[in-house]
Amino acid sequence: MTGCHPLYLMKKQIIFALLACFASAYVQAISPTPPSPTTSADRLADGKPGANQVRVVYYRKDDRVGDGVANLYVDGEFHAALLPNSYNVFCLTPGRHFIGSWFKEAPHYLGKEAPTQEYQFKAGETIFLRVDASYNGRSLIKQKQQVELESVGLHESIHMLSRASAVVPCKSGVFDAS
Description:
Elements: H1 6-30, H2 39-45, E1 54-60, E2 70-74, E3 77-82, E4 86-92, E5 95-102, H3 110-113, E6 118-121, E7 126-131, E8 139-142, H4 144-150, E9 155-156, E10 167-168
Parallel strand pairs: 1-7, 4-9
Antiparallel strand pairs: 1-4, 2-3, 2-5, 4-10, 5-6, 7-8
Helix pairs in contact: 2-4
């Protein structure tokens, strides 16, 4: 008998189709669709905090200096982990807060033990902070115009559960009379 059995041919076709699906998924994973140039910039620069809140935009450029993540701490409690080209937006109550980012801090976890930068926030303001990859614990205050230029292509960091008790849900400009 010359020729192949129909079941053998069907198995080969199924295997080929599965390999094509896996290859397609792999290509999409390693080369994600670039974000719209306005997506990150609009989200970062144009949000408004609630009347009794402070909105903090914390971002990290493609610094390639810090290996791995920059762990972000608020008042000595872990809040987020920022990879290069990522950002996190969160809200706080007005007043005094310590905010900083740390690279390679295990096993001492200096962000918890030795918060370095203190900020005094006023209600209704938005503050823009960038990871300073050259100095552990330090953040750089940035102006809105600079953030609009630097934030194109950033991705929101949503992979970690915040443990910072000072972080509150943002209310988007809603007045809270409490």
